[in-house]
Amino acid sequence: MSELHAETASSRKRKSPSRLVPTSRRMLTAEVHRVQRLSESMVGITIGGPELEHFEYQGADQFFRFFFRRPGQDVLRMPTWGNDGWLAQYLLMAAPTRPHCRIYTARSFRPESNELDIEFVAHGDSSPASGWAVRAQPGDPVGIFDEGTTYNPPAVDGWQLLVGDESAMPAILSILEGSPADLRAQVFLEVPHAADIREITVPDGVDMHWLPRENDHAIPGRLALEALIEAQLPAENPSYAYLAGESGLATGARRFLVNERGMPKSDVKFQGYWKHGKASPG
């Protein structure tokens, strides 16, 4: 097992590392084992294989690069370089052989069977990953490259704030399922439809706010941002905020917490997984 190292932002003081990643990372190949429709808008895919014995599961919002074939590709050709060298190799691959690459969260991992669960937002062919997920079959080849975790709250008393849309739902649910029993938190989770709301057991100190849009034309994340701004939050700022999802939600929520509530930037972790109206590279 390789050790973990912490990546910190040198431009600002942090109470805890901003990201925890393995010191030695490599490409891991696997294949689809099972496909399950989780709700109206979510598809769960279980991948597995012998190489996943090298996957160092940390829980929380652990994420990875996910490689899958483009339409028309018979073979999944993966980069072979590890650590930070893989991207240059990937970009040098000829377009006809280069696989798709996206970022996804490890929803759960079973080391006894080397199986990893991943959840995809299903919105037809509007994105390569969605199109692949709704058509995935057992035996389809895939690959992953671990990127570690970013959810790393400081060990101090206080309450936490978790805000996200459906693209952040796997991370936030994983965080909650692995949280201590004494966690105090306000959670705002936007989903496309009420049918996408999950049954989840949370600590008594967690207030869970599910926010179904019920509008296929609405920009994801807007509802969660509005709910956060209008919410009657405790007067005392959270000790840590985790904001993830569509770029406008993540940056807008951070701006509100820092500018309107005076929360230190070092206590806010925000991640724009994607940007509405803009295709992801790769």
UniProtKB/TrEMBL annotation:
CDD domains: siderophore_interacting. InterPro entries: FAD-bd_FR_type, FNR_nucleotide-bd, Riboflavin_synthase-like_b-brl, SIP_FAD-bd, SIP_fam, SIP_rossman_dom. Residues 1-22 are annotated as: Disordered. Gene3D superfamilies: Nucleotide-binding domain of ferredoxin-NADP reductase (FNR) module, Translation factors. It comes from the Bacteria. GO terms for molecular function: oxidoreductase activity. SUPFAM superfamilies: Riboflavin synthase domain-like. Residues 25-154 form the FAD-binding FR-type domain. PROSITE patterns: FAD_FR. This is NADPH-dependent ferric siderophore reductase, contains FAD-binding and SIP domains. The lineage of its organism: Bacteria, Bacillati, Actinomycetota, Actinomycetes, Micrococcales.
